[in-house]
Amino acid sequence: MTIYTAEHRAKLEDYLANHSLPEGIGHEESACTVAAINLAISGKLTDRIPDCMSKVLGRAAIRLQDDMPDDMRNSQRYKTLIPNMAGSGRTLEKERLAVLMDWMWSMVLPQLQSIADEGGYGEQWQIMCRKRTKKAARAAYVAARAAYADVAAARAADVAARAAYADFWSKVDPIGVLERMTYLQGKDTGIKG
After folding, report:
1. Based on the structure, what is the number of domains in the chain?
2. Contact status, residue 108 vs residue 99, Cβ threshold 8 Å
3. Which of 54, 121, 143, 154 could form a disulfide with 88 if both were Cys (CB 3.0 to 4.6 A apart)?
4. CA pair distance 78, 68, nearest whole angstrom
5. Is residue 193 part of a domain?
């Protein structure tokens, strides 16, 4: 098991203070969230989630850091969170997944309702967000695919999506969900020394 030490934390904090985080894995001078953690721990550029870090949190961080805007990914708020993510441990995986899923259903998907309305599948989208079932999600997917078969509907939804992009990220607050996942209370923090 990888042990996350105070020395690793200091290296990571120094790295984050002096480097930008890119989309994708990046390189040694600009590494992604998990690669920066690995550079501090092992000196290797890899996006393999280290043993001292929650796999659920690591996978969420990889996905969200690639999707969120550059200024959010390189914000002081996010860079301050990363050293705590590194030593999150793996004993609270179910709880972290529950936080992530609740965020997806209650924050992210409802923010896309106006796009669904514009695209002609708003009713199915609303039902999916309320029911939170595979069956409802499948019905929303089928309705969205049918709506996008109509070129005019697809263009209208695309315009609406671009207009709402910046507002979307501030409303769904991906850093906030990563914070909630990181700071869950439990015995195993993964931090030693």
Report:
1. 1
2. no
3. 54
4. 11
5. no
